[in-house]
Amino acid sequence: MLDTLHPFKRNYLDRNGNKLHYVNEGQGEPVVMVHGNPSWSFYYRNLISALSDKHQCIVPDHIGCGLSDKPDDSGYDYTLKNRIDDLEALLEHLDVKQNITLVVHDWGGMIGMGYAARYPERIKRLVILNTGAFHLPTTKPFPLALSICRNTALGTFLVRGFNAFSSAASYVGVKRKPMHKEIREAYVAPFNSWANRISTLRFVQDIPLKPGDRNYELVSDIAASLTQFQHVPTVICWGLQDFVFDKHFLTEWKQRMPHAKVHEFNDCGHYILEDASDEVISHIKDFIAETQVGTVEVKQADTVKQESVA
């Protein structure tokens, strides 16, 4: 069933003895799609199918996720810098160094924009989907569920013992209608044991909240780099019912990327490419087409609000 739902050739890159799986479909200008936690390249399957006729679609599974290896802490340091290093190594391996359309979701925003901060000249477009690339907005309380996962033994037990994080996300991450059973099972399939759920927990534990936390300065640097991309064509598609990446994060993106075209979905949640797949893919395809030829004149934000569907 998984091969039917995720029907792409499996490619692997060796990263210090760990196999990093990635999708590499189609030819043309590259579209690099970076997933977050607790998802994997499966999240982008419909976008890959929609774009690979004209574009080279590159979609890695982070170490510990999807079809990549899932080493313990002695085999991999599950931290933001290594995630960015992995993405850089993959794109270097594929010789992808220009005209990149970067698509980011969840932790993929921090990882993808961390890469972009290193090589801003390589980024042609940005597609931002319910994510962040800056510290928790001052107006946003840190969600209790994340605090339990991040800071308590109970959280470790629930995430690694019962797959609570990945399983819960497959239910609460969509709002228009529940995921079909086989889709939900595909999301959680890679995280099928205590050992294989290590990255799900380490991602949450790696969230820096205050100076002195590991990666706090790196996140500060990534946030500061965003001013470099205010000339880069950007589209934002946002599910407003996301319990983490909610209106507070969207407001911050609008302030930092005032030129972006914004599509808000009042009735959608975190997994915007599940809730509103057809609409979001259409917006992305139109955005790429509109910015394909010649010099793009950056315009003021054009906010398009999608009304809730009863």
Distinctive features:
hydrolase activity, Alpha/beta fold hydrolase, globular, 310 residues, alpha/beta, Epox_hydrolase-like
Largest sheet: 9 strands, mixed
Order of helices and strands: HEEEHEHEHEHHHHHHEHEHHE
Distance between the termini: 32 Å
Structural class: alpha/beta
Extract low-pLDDT stretches: 294-310
Strand order of the largest sheet: 1-2-4-3-5-6-7-8-9
Question: Beta-sheet strand percentage?
Answer: 15-25%
Helix content: 25-40%
Averaged pLDDT: 93
Overall geometric form: globular
Total beta strand runs: 9
Pfam family, one: Abhydrolase_1
Organism: Shewanella fidelis
Protein name: Alpha/beta fold hydrolase
Domain AB hydrolase-1: 30-275
Overview of the molecule:
- It comes from Shewanella fidelis.
- By secondary structure, the chain is α/β, with parallel strands linked by helices.
- The chain is built from 13 helices and nine strands.
- It has helices spanning 2-5, 45-51, 80-93, 107-118, 144-151, 153-162, 164-172, 181-188, 198-205, 216-225, 247-256, 272-275, 277-290; strands at residues 11-15, 18-25, 29-34, 55-60, 100-106, 123-131, 234-239, 261-265, 302-306.
- It has a nine-stranded mixed beta sheet with strand order 1-2-4-3-5-6-7-8-9, sandwiched between helices.
- The protein starts with a helix and ends with a strand.
How do the strands and helices of this protein lay out in sequence?
Blueprint: H1 2-5, E1 11-15, E2 18-25, E3 29-34, H2 45-51, E4 55-60, H3 80-93, E5 100-106, H4 107-118, E6 123-131, H5 144-151, H6 153-162, H7 164-172, H8 181-188, H9 198-205, H10 216-225, E7 234-239, H11 247-256, E8 261-265, H12 272-275, H13 277-290, E9 302-306
Parallel strand pairs: 3-4, 3-5, 5-6, 6-7, 7-8, 8-9
Antiparallel strand pairs: 1-2, 2-4
Protein name: Alpha/beta fold hydrolase
Domain AB hydrolase-1: 30-275
Pfam families: Abhydrolase_1
